[in-house]
Amino acid sequence: MTTLEELKSFYESEQYQTLLNEFANRSKRELGSREFDMFRLYFKLSYCQRRYMILDVPFDEVLSVIENNKDTFLDYQIAAAEYFNEQDIDTTYLIEKFCEFYLLQAADKNRLLHYLIFVKSKISFQHRIYAKQITKLYHQTISNTK
After folding, report:
1. Distances (CA, A) of 107 to 58, 97, 130
2. Per-residue pLDDT at 130 exceeds 80
3. Spatial separation of the C-alpha atoms in residues 139 and 133, rounded to whole Å
């Protein structure tokens, strides 16, 4: 199981800061505060930890997929942020999106739907709509990078 300390360590790592900087430069978006008080940081990371519990895949495995597909991951996140008109992107944003990308990369529609049921919505049809939207964006991103 992914621990809060593991997520906090990654959040504070140079590797993650480089990923955030690259996202900000490519998307030309201002990232929200890089400075969280300890309570808010742990709150945000516990939210991420729940996502990893639902995914039930070791953090290292997810991180490996992100590292091996960094450009696609960043291009997809930029496209998704624009498509969903996300304005309040803070420094935990990318960690929150790792699980979705992992499942999109695996091309496991049923597992993606299962994950989204628990993470994304309380109304049953919304997770299906969201899954279709992000799958389409993901495939567009892959097509554009080839």
Report:
1. 18, 16, 15
2. yes
3. 10
Angle between helices 70-83 and 14-27 (to 10 degrees): 50
Give me 1's structure tokens: 């199981």
The region of weakest confidence among 5-9, 79-83, 119-123, 130-134 is 119-123
| Helix, strand, coil percentages for the chain (3-state, nearest 5) | 75, 0, 25
Contact between 85 and 48 (Cβ < 8 Å):
no
Residue 117 C-alpha from the chain's centroid: 16
The CA–CA distances, whole Å, from 111 to 18, 32, 34, 107, 116 equal 30, 31, 32, 9, 9
Hey, where are the domains in the chain? Answer: 4-145
